[in-house]
From TrEMBL:
Biological source species: Fluviispira multicolorata
GO process terms (BP): methylation
Protein name: O-methyltransferase
Secretion signal, residue range per the UniProt entry: none
InterPro entries per the UniProt record, alphabetical: Cation-dep_OMT, SAM-dependent_MTases_sf, SAM_O-MeTrfase
Recorded superkingdom: Bacteria
UniProt-recorded Gene Ontology molecular function terms: O-methyltransferase activity; S-adenosylmethionine-dependent methyltransferase activity
Keywords: Methyltransferase, S-adenosyl-L-methionine, Transferase
Pfam families found in the cross-reference section: Methyltransf_3 (PF01596)
Amino acid sequence: EFSQNDKNIAAYALNTFKPEDNILKEVRDRAKKLEIPAIHVNDMDGKHLEVLIAMANAEKIIEVGTLAGYSAICIARGMQNKGILHTIEIEQKHYDAAKTSFKNANISHLIKQHLGSALNILKSLEQEGSFDAIFIDADKVSYPDYLTWAEKNIRIGGIIIADNTFAWGHINDSHFETLELEKQVKGIREFNQRIANNSNFKATILPTGEGLTVAVRIS
Ligand code: SAM
């Protein structure tokens, strides 16, 4: 079976589709210097995001978990210069780094940054009406809560995308090194179970290294 985990296949995909340009590389490098954790989406998942957003013609978008802005740049590239991406981050340092990233990438006009706890900010955004897309990539324990919000606030035809949905390889584990890891894996499992069984959505998990769950609302 071929997969992105196979080194030759991964190299082929990277060399052909060239997901990471100098702007994205600079985000990774600057984040490292700032001692921001290197938990950005991987390069190919960034490219998947760009294409999925363009496929959905999404213009009103939410991102939960900005970090240094890597994935938001990918999403913004999929927007093709129209619409608004609300991106939510709880850490001031990450928020500030992302502000620089958006300026460098010339996409600040497409982005509204929110600083605070995602669940509170999501609640306040409900008044803006339904959204075309949401990318979920913050604390895994809250994935089920983010899903509850998305089920209500994503329009028919809109999409839900979530990262790390193989739980860093721990998705099938029954014993965990820490209670925190166990809670995170349980959050991701509940998220996948619920979206897989929600008849208002068609959902799948793209077997990229990290696992990228993707769903489209059909009713
Ligand atoms: N999407 C980013 C990217 O690919 O470039 C990576 C996001 S990183 C995996 C998760 C981010 O979510 C961190 O910056 C973290 O501070 C933030 N975060 C964690 N819990 C949060 C919460 N409850 N509300 C908002 N942001 C949160």
